[in-house]
Amino acid sequence: MEVKQAxxxxxxxxxxxxxxxxxxxxxxxxxxxxSPLIGGNVAVVSPSEESTSGKTSTFGAVFIVVNxxxxxxxxxxxxxxxxxxxxxxxxxxxxxxLFLIFSSLLVLAVCSDVRNSNSYQDMMQSMCxxxxxxxxxxxxxxxxxxxxxxxxxxxxxxLDSILALATHNDQTKYWYTxxxxxxxxxxxxxxxxxxxxKNISIxxxxxxxxxIGTIYVAVVIIINYYLLPTNAATHIVTRPTSWTDVxxxxxxxxxxxxxxxxAVPVYxxxxxxxxxxxxWVITGxxxxxxxxxxLTGIYGSLTFGDRVCSDVLxxxxxxNVTVTVARVMILGNMLTSYPILHxxxxxxxETIYVTARKLPPAAAELTQTRRRIVETLSxxxxxxxxxxxxxxxxSVISVIGGLAAVFILVxxxxxxxxxxxxxxxxxxSKSKRRFQIVLGxxxxxxxxxxxxxxxxxxxxxxxGVISGGTVDC
Length: 473
Prior knowledge:
The protein contains 17 helices and no strands. By secondary structure, it is an all-alpha fold. The chain has a single domain (8-392), classed as Hydantoin permease.
């Protein structure tokens, strides 16, 4: 498969205008794409040989990666810190994970250079063949769907508090203030119309400033720690009650730092597409995200202790003006983020459909409109129904956070192993290949463990086998 290197303008057009290239998942694959590379030799090419220069600066790339990182997961960090055994344990776990996250992002850059891939799925196709691409598409669908459910839950959380302020905390239960009603109305009137179009170009500016809203939330949490009176009854967890408690923060950390799906197109769009330049990009982005998450986790934990809600904003009084502004900003961010995640999931569905049916581009385009409407309505209705009956974002993040570990570690690990196995004829030393294989195995094993542990723990909590360690608000 000859994947053309796209510049930043092309990438933005493909994503926001629904204009995939000729080899994209929505229009079918070339004949080369049907031949897996597993077991064969991979010709490693230099980015300068076959790619065109991108237009994204280092600073711009840092902002894009930060925007991909910081989001809904921010609200769950204080709760995750307390469940894991306190701010010290939570912070240490986060710092340790940073090394894995940083390394796996570099692995993605190296592997995407093999065939100048410009998307995560293109990279999986080039390294692991069609089977790897389909596996990646399935995970993208599940991850994006779970994230969309989380967005609806967060919308409901913020609406509850905003309406409580508007009604002056009137305890009377009105039908128009019922959570299920407000989420449904907001979803049908605003979210659904944004999901139906073929392109989502209208969202490129609102979504690009979403990171400002989440950083504002972190600032509000810090400021309110000093402004609010100290509650003597607050119990702050300082150590885990069991060694297994430390893993409670894993899903939130993985969910919060999962920027890997966006990392490959960002790398492809750099003015200087080199691994060294990309290292500077992810260093800056991860530093900003880490500081934001750590401060939110620490100050949220110190303010509310073990009584902090899984959505930290719910722990504050509905009359707090600064927090109300934060709720409005988060609500707006979720309204524009849902269609983007849905768009990514819809493209992944198209990948599986077109591949399974072996449709040529012309045939796939004929029924594209009907498929888009059916896929969108099905996705929307199912995610809305789940959000209406799932009580907290912690319940969803505990599952999709584990799945994020697959994108962060498992897939990069498999690609690194494949790179080492297929570079025997290239200019690569035996010791280097052995190191790549060992590192790839470690990545894949750790990612699989994190995924299994997170999902198992979530199921045990759901069935009442163990306590979830979080507060339902």
